[in-house]
Input
Amino acid sequence: MTTTVPAATATATHPAVDRPTVDHPTVDRPGADLDELIRRDPGAHRVLTGDRPTGPLHLGHYFGTLQNRVRLQRLGTEMFVVVADYQVITDRDVADRLAEHTENLVLDYLAAGLDPDRATIFAHSAVPALNQLLLPFLSLVSVAELGRNPTVKDEIAHSGQSVVNGLMFTYPVHQAADILFCKANVVPVGQDQLPHLEVARTVARRFNERYPHLDGTGVFPRPDALLSAAPMLLGTDGGKMSKSRGNAVALSATADATARLIRGARTDTDRRITYEPAARPEVSSLVLLAALCQDRAPELVAEEIGDGGAAALKRTVTEAVNERFGPMRARREELAADRGYVRQVLRDGAERANAVADATLAEVRAVMGSV
Ligand code: ATP
Ligand code: MG
Output
């Protein structure tokens, strides 16, 4: 079962990766208030976000979260980016080509504009104290709560596994450890992650209530999700664009591969192109994609195509994607020539993340009385 969520509404201009950002949309979208708060005081916010190393990042990642990360980094917010490698084995028997996927993920980050001097990029398996937080956190949620999580249910449905392992159910709590180990209060994510973020908020609140500092204050902040203008970009089959569902257009895809994939995208039979996310999710998601690439309003893109039909829409989208991501692909190729650098980025990130995680774990053990 695919979660059917309409393509997002986007009404304003959107920042390009290479430009300093000023005009981010702040209306008609969850997270808009948070966006304004961050812009006013970037130093008061700490960002954690990340991805599973299960394949190349795609357009959904870029417009769902990666663009926001780069924007927040430019604003000067402190940033942690986790390569969630343990979470690969939630729905796979074997974490196939893990090292390769991890390095490719870092390449995608760097090509998109994440700066390893400003963002701490690390794999969570390299940070033992982070993972140790899972133990107290697991005691704070009930089995029934874990079983109700809609994203976990959706991922189980898509994994095609006959047997579901325990890590799959504890995935959101593990993610709470990812977020809270560095006391992040902002998490730029796609819509599918909102239920997980709710778990992280619950864990933070319950931990603070059960184990307050002597002065009554809590160890953890309650993190907020930051959604973009495209919190659920659809893939070529009309479901959520996902690395592991064979429906994605990778950021690193060639211009030709991009054209082929978009040509095969599902649309509908109505010749007139409109932007109506609820009524026409597939067509609207394509319109939105072109609009995001061109920093324009989706209604305008749809109006220009008018009666041109799906073929004209797909031509517009292909051109827009290839133009927007051409420079990023070229940058990625240059970076890919030096794998040693990529590994160094991960080593440096792990070192910084370990220092932060050790300090948080020490604090956790102290309030729990386990010193
Ligand atoms: P997998 O199929 O392995 O689960 P995925 O494509 O769903 O891969 P994740 O690593 O699970 O990617 O997600 C990383 C981040 O990207 C999350 O914040 C998620 O919400 C966001 N994201 C993933 N897909 C989309 C999408 N189609 N639209 C917007 N955001 C997305
Ligand atoms: Mg996913």
Remarks:
- Residues 17 and 64 are 13 Å apart (CA to CA).
- Residues 242 surround magnesium ion (ligand 2) (CB under 6 Å).
- The chain is about 50% helix and 5% strand.
